[in-house]
Design a protein that fits this description.
Elements lengths: L4 H5 L4 E4 L8 E6 L2 E7 L2 H9 L22 E5 L10 E4 L4 E3 L6 E2 L5 E3 L11 E5 L2 E4 L1
Antiparallel strand pairs: 1-10, 2-3, 3-4, 5-6, 6-7, 7-8, 9-10
Amino acid sequence: MNPDASTIAAGAPIEVDLTPVAEGQDIKVFWRGKPIYISHRTKKQIDEARAVNVASLPDPQSDEARVKPGHEQWLVVIGICTHLGCIPIAHEGNYDGFFCPCHGSQYDSSGRIRQGPAPANLPVPPYQFVSDTKIQIG
């Protein structure tokens, strides 16, 4: 008795199994018609994101505020550039995060804007861990 496609499109929560996502890999799923990037970050990516001086960011936000405690290796963001709504490419750009080829916005491995015209970080959708290997978005 799963919800029909129109209910899902309207925003029903979705569950995503993280088991097949290897460290350093990203997957893209869709929720409410929006692309959601789920990144299994490496220790290097986490360390680099946490070493950034938050005050130097255009949209200051700590890495810790963008992930769930105890699950720091998982980043979940809405994959829509905050400049003009393009879809950025994962693992591109100067910050091992996301690069929007349309106008050059670059986001780091925490989805924070670091360079280019985008005014804000990639948004984090509402999500929760329902187990160590599964999340619910929405």
